[in-house]
Amino acid sequence: IRILTEEVATQIAAGEVIERPSSVVRELVDNSIDAGADRIRVRIEGGGKSLIRVSDNGIGMSRDDLLLSIERHATSKILSVEDLFAISSLGFRGEALPSIASVSRMRITSKVAEAVAGHTLKISGGKLEDIEETGAPEGTTVEVRDLFYNVPARKKFLKGERTEADKIIDTFSRLALAFENIYFQLENEQKLLINLPSSEQLIPRLAILFGRSVAEGMVQETFNKSGLSMTVYAAPAEFSRSRADRIYVYVNRRNVKDRLINRAIMDGYGQRLMKGAYPQVVLFIETEPSQVDVNVHPAKQEVRFRQPGLLFQSIMRLVDSALGRRIHIYPGSSTWDREGEVQEPVEVRWEPSSPATKPVSFPLTTDSVQVPLFDDQITVIGQLNRTYILCQDRNGLMIVDQHAAHERVLYEKLMEQVKKSGLEVQNLLVPKRIDLSVSEKRTLEKRGEVLSELGIDVEDFGGEAVLLRAVPSMLENADWDQLLVELIGALKEGPVDKGSILEHVITIMACHGAVRAGHTMSMAEMTALLAQLNRLRLPTNCPHGRPITRTITYYELERMFKRVV
Which one, 8, 20, 253, 560, has the greatest CB density within 10 A? Predict the structure, then answer.
């Protein structure tokens, strides 16, 4: 057994704290926030591998403090063991700066308000090179170059510059969302990517980071009881995504990742979400520091609560309550319909076309229509709860999920067109402006050619806005504000090979284009849908795997009514 050298021990510690460039950004911005800054500017180059510069107008550091800041376990935020259980700052271990300094070339310039001049400290690979007096504004600027230059084994595991930049954007966005009173700016390759002026309200920042359509749809609910305060901003289930990357959770303004909390949020949405779908939610939890342990993991993104069961139930009820109220929080927006009522659905093209002009009643025997389905004759009886088509066949009562059925029909039609000659395209008479988030715009620029192949013509309109000029004719009337964002999300973290990407994107398009639950259908529309379904290769499941039909046999019905034993 040997005692490790200081250099090796420091690099091991750095490996726990600094995983990638986004870790550096998180630690440095945390320090700026703790320093009381109300303006923080971040600049990156080469995905953060070449340069990360974080500047703030906080309280700054004196020459002596500057020298202490690069020593391990030197901090101004705690003094005793008891302080570990009453942490109110984001940082507290005194490990960030020495860890970063040990795996990079770092320069820190800082000045306190009462000082005539500031000081610049230079350190490379953990070794102090120089400290000198310099002119500087009040605050601190930390410049990190050549991250992991002296740890090639760690450097080779980093992703490409664009991927690392995307990680930084995500980390930066999560930090900025919790401190709307601070002016945040992020530059990438000398281009201003995110500009977030300070504000008394969170909503403008939500619109920039989540997209305007999502922010306009979010509902707000608060909870205050027994020393626990929570505020949730929850987007309706219509804005759900295929990934959980838009679930933002903060505990005492610290962004955390907690499976228990995520599970509580998902349970709060309950059956509003389809299987495999995740909501867009921002949850702020405020509690006494003594009730939560943040000293669990070096990255400080995991926490433990003294009463996790109580917290779980409170979050679940809070989310459920918010979605039950369905009231917009965005200025100037209209009031949502109450739960149970459905907004007017988008028009859906049918073959043959026979739209209902008014809700219809469905008699049990008259006006029934015979259609061949699954090699059997069925009778269309009517529609249940504007969601299910009721039919009878020789086996009993067959219930058809109208959305799942139409989704399967659209999916196979779209796939067939793509394989044959490409989708039929409809140019929009008036191009549609759609506002995206910064990361969504970058993904579109990187992988947008897949959408072009599907007949979706999108062009840059400045900032984070784009113009939608053409769409597949089969989906002309879909909600493209939401659909385009969902498609971009699929491109961002979807399959790698082109064929799988196309299939994934078409699945999403079919889902958005299909008739929704809550849409009143005429007998002719139901008949046409079932006839089209019957001609498909796989009429039993939607593209997501959900069943399209369920049958209650005559025998089961007779047992329900005690006609048989």
Answer: 20
Q: What torsion do the CA atoms of 132, 138, 140, 141 make, to the nearest 10 degrees?
A: -80
Domain assignment of residue 47, given as a range: 6-196
- Residue percentage of the chain with pLDDT more than 70: 83
Mean per-residue pLDDT for 62-83? 74
Question: Is 335 inside a domain boundary?
Answer: no
The conformation of residue 113, written as its DSSP 8-state character, comes to T
Among candidate residues 162, 68, 46, 66, the one with its CA nearest the CA of residue 118: 66
Q: Give the list of residues 6+ apart from residue 332 with CB closer than 8 angstroms, or none.
A: none
**Residue 409 dihedral angles phi and psi, to the nearest 5°:** -60, -50
How does pLDDT run across 8-23, given as a tens digit for each residue? Answer: 776 766 666 789 999 9
Residue with more model confidence, 313 or 121 = 121
Is 234 domain-assigned? yes
Q: What are the Cα distances from residue 556, in Å, to 390, 401, 551?
A: 16, 20, 10
Sign of the alpha-carbon torsion through 49, 50, 56, 60: positive
Residue 346 belongs to a domain: no
State the amino acid at position 138 in one-letter form.
E
Strands 139-145 vs 457-460: parallel, antiparallel or unpaired: unpaired
pLDDT in tens, 81-137: 555 555 656 765 668 898 999 999 999 999 999 999 999 999 999 999 999 999 999
Mean residue pLDDT across the chain: 83
For residues 505 and 451, the answer to whether their CB atoms sit within 8 Å is yes
- Taking alpha carbons only, the member of 484, 462, 482, 461 closest to residue 471 is 484
Closest CA to 148 of 105, 94, 97: 105
Q: Which residues contact residue 329 at a Cβ distance below 8 angstroms, ignoring those fewer than 6 apart?
A: 203, 218, 219, 220, 233
User: Which amino acid is residue 493, in one-letter code?
Assistant: E
211 and 146 in a single domain? The answer is no
**Cα–Cα distance measured from residue 50 to residue 20, given in angstroms and rounded to the nearest whole number:** 12
From 166, 168, 195, 169, select the one nearest 182 (Cα to Cα).
195
Q: Which residues contact 542 (CB under 8 A, 6 or more apart)?
A: 401, 403, 404, 405, 407, 408, 411, 548
Number of residues assigned to the chain: 565
Would you call the peptide bond into 352 cis, given omega within 30 degrees of 0 as the criterion? yes
Nearest to 20 by CA among 159, 173, 176: 159
Mean pLDDT of 494-520: 80
The position carrying tokens 């959980």 is 244
CA nearest to 190, candidates 23, 56, 58, 51: 51
Block residue for tokens 């310099």: 134
Handedness of CA 203, 251, 492, 217 (dihedral sign): negative
